[in-house]
Design brief:
The complex is a heterodimer of chains A (347) and B (276). With 347 residues, chain A is α/β, with parallel strands linked by helices. The two termini of chain A are 17 Å apart. Chain B has two domains: 120 residues; 144 residues. In chain B, helix 1 runs antiparallel to helix 4, helix 2 packs antiparallel against helix 3 and helix 8 packs antiparallel against helix 9. Classes of the chains: A alpha/beta (347), B mainly alpha (276). At the A-B interface, helix 7 and helix 11 of A face helix 5, helix 6, helix 7 and helix 9 of B.
């Protein structure tokens, strides 16, 4: 008996094909039951997310025969009649376990090191467990995969840092201010990115958000979405005495904030630190303002560069993670072998 | 078996060696961008401070008083206050790397303190001319104040480094496990304020001490120097809190003042009639 995996992911198949083979949550228990009833697998789990569809199975069949049968099952279950090339991949032990550990750790994800997959894999396993479609082999493999993912999270930098512009802005704010709950945010311009950035800051507990926009209707709409208040566009400089973070994304053709405007405002603020996030193109804030003490200016390229650096950092960690995973897979296989020998001796 | 050959100076030498090891490790941590949260440097510094405490205890037991009678003792007392305060503050969240910034200061001044000429011994059987609780309070509070100013300068270095990294968009600012700018600024201010209060207590206690009639208090070089420091720190605190001095200027000011303090501490001691 060994663990095999068959499936398709963002690496092997386009979204049109992935959605064709996706399992809805409600249909997974029935599919698992059908798989076991076919005699193909003694234990099985189905993972179905927007980026991957995978079947993990414990089978007594030879690997090639198992792959062929599982592929047939997938095609038949989804009544797929199109052509298939290399879109469906399959792994036998030890590669299947290696793949499972990589998936759990986010190493096989579109954004390396992301943590959402961990929760999705856990849910998939819990569904199979609740419907009694798992046994000793899969239980051990999945538990070990979750442990390895947690270990990699703490022992390496694979999940370190922000890989999106919004989260980079939040991280910067947390490097400047001790507690975001004591600080207010001004959103200048009601664009989509500024909304997302404001939401990211809101999720970290900022005290209050104020929105301003040339169109008062759009400002009001965004303020309602964020649970914020609005101020007339011509009055936004007055807010600088209170706020500590400003996100700007207007469509203005020239700078709306320059050094001459900000300098007296900083004096009124008694030089409290001010984080300016300029995500407008063309830029809203004159780069010369960053020469002022306690002013920290980041534009969209700066934030993107932080996100890219973090992603590169994560990529550098992949080799280290792969090594740890290989060791953990070997340990699991050795444990399985020991258990099998012990059972054999007992018989 | 009594280890009579193992004097308090040997003990202090060992402490300085540990400060040196901590300095070397700090270079490693700096090269790694202060990314890993670890206790190794804290441990090295803690061993150094423990040995340092033992050295001062041994010296104090020999003198039967607070060991602040010559330049060596005064310098080691100042360093001890700095080291101990660093160990306490390093226990705060994200302040562990304070040890990496403090160790080089402890090591450098520790080497200086080991110069034999600084450790002038009293004649056998002789006692300091003036002794007692008030004298110990005077010396101890002033040296602790210098320790607090030293740690404030260390926090100011961390602040300026973080500010530079954030201003110039260095990834190190985000990767390093250093405290937020606001927290560093708060600690910097608090340490200067604590140091200022201690210095005020120390100077007031000094004023109350008995002295020769031909040695007026405010004409002594050390007293004048200490009063100058008191004024400089008072100006820094008032300008920062009341007149909107920027945190960067405040940080630079307290670093510069502490460097001045270190460079002139021993000269004023040598020329002070009241302290010799």
């Amino acid at each position: 008996m060994s663990v095999v995996v068959i499936g398709l992911s963002h690496r092997s198949a386009p979204v049109e094909l992935r959605e064709r083979f996706a399992f809805t949550c409600e249909k997974i228990p029935a599919a698992l039951a059908a798989l076991r009833a076919s005699g193909l697998a003694s234990e099985c789990t189905i993972l179905s997310t927007c980026n991957r569809v995978e079947i993990y199975a414990v089978t007594s069949l030879a690997a090639d025969a198992a792959f062929a049968e599982l592929k047939k099952f997938l095609i038949a279950h989804h009544a797929y009649d199109g052509a298939l090339g290399d879109e469906i991949y399959s792994f036998a032990e030890p590669h299947s376990l290696h793949h499972l550990f990589k998936v759990a750790s986010g190493l096989d994800s579109m954004v390396i090191g992301e943590t959402e997959i961990f929760g999705q894999l856990k849910s998939a396993y819990e569904v199979a467990l609740a419907h009694q479609h798992t046994g000793a082999r899969l239980n051990k493999a999945f538990q070990r995969a979750f442990n390895v993912a947690k270990h990699l999270r703490t022992a390496t930098n694979i999940q370190r840092g922000s890989v999106s512009v919004m989260s980079a802005a939040v991280e910067l704010a947390e490097k400047i201010f001790t507690a975001l709950s004591e600080h207010e945010v001004l959103v200048i311009g009601a664009g989509e990115t500024s909304e997302k950035t404001a939401r990211a800051l809101q999720s970290r507990g900022v005290k209050k958000i104020t929105v301003t926009n040339r169109s008062p209707e759009r400002a009001a709409a965004l303020a309602t979405e964020l649970g914020a208040r609005t101020v007339p566009f011509e009055n936004w400089p007055d807010e600088f005495e209170r706020i500590d973070i400003a996100i700007s994304s207007t469509a203005a053709p020239q700078h709306i904030l320059n050094r001459a405007t900000l300098e007296p405002l900083m004096k009124r603020r008694k030089h409290r630190p001010l984080l300016l996030i300029d995500i407008a193109v063309p830029r809203d804030i004159d780069p010369a303002v960053s020469e002022l003490d306690n002013v920290y200016l980041y534009n969209v390229d700066d934030l993107q560069s932080i996100a890219d650096d973090y992603l590169n950092l994560r990529k550098e960690e992949v080799a280290r993670c792969e090594k740890i995973i290989s060791e953990k897979v070997s340990a699991l296989l050795a444990a399985n072998k020991f258990s099998a020998n012990a059972a054999h001796t007992k018989d | 078996m009594r280890m009579a050959w193992f004097t308090d100076r040997h003990c202090f030498l060992l402490a300085v060696i540990f400060y040196g090891l901590s300095t070397l490790y700090s270079v490693f941590l700096w090269r790694k961008g202060f990314r890993r949260d670890e206790w190794a440097n804290y441990f090295l510094l803690a061993v150094g401070v423990a040995l340092h405490t033992l050295a001062m205890f041994k010296r104090g037991m020999t003198l039967h008083s607070c060991p602040v009678n010559n330049l060596y003792e005064a310098t080691t007392f100042l360093l001890w206050a700095l080291g101990l305060a660093c160990l306490v503050y390093s226990l705060m969240p994200r302040f562990k790397f304070l040890t990496a910034f403090t160790a080089p200061v402890l090591f450098t001044i520790g080497i200086f303190a080991l110069m034999p000429s600084l450790d002038v011994h009293l004649s056998p059987g002789a006692k300091p001319e003036f002794s007692g609780a008030l004298r110990s309070l005077h010396a101890a509070t002033i040296l602790q104040a210098y320790g607090a100013f030293g740690l404030a300068a260390v926090a100011a270095v961390m602040f300026l480094m973080q500010q530079h990294d954030l201003k110039f968009h260095k990834l190190r600012a985000l990767l390093s496990l250093l405290p937020s700018m606001q927290r560093l600024e708060f600690i910097m201010f608090r340490l200067v304020a604590v140091g200022f209060v201690l210095l005020t207590i120390g100077l007031t206690a000094g004023w109350q001490l008995p002295r020769h009639a031909d040695k007026p208090y405010f004409s002594d070089s050390k007293v004048l120097w200490s009063t100058l420091l008191w004024l400089v720190y008072l100006e820094a605190l008032v300008a920062y809190k009341k007149f909107g001095r920027t945190s960067r200027r405040f940080a630079i000011g307290i670093i510069a003042t502490f460097i001045f303090l270190l460079l002139t501490f021993w000269i004023t001691n040598l020329y002070s009639g009241l302290h010799n």
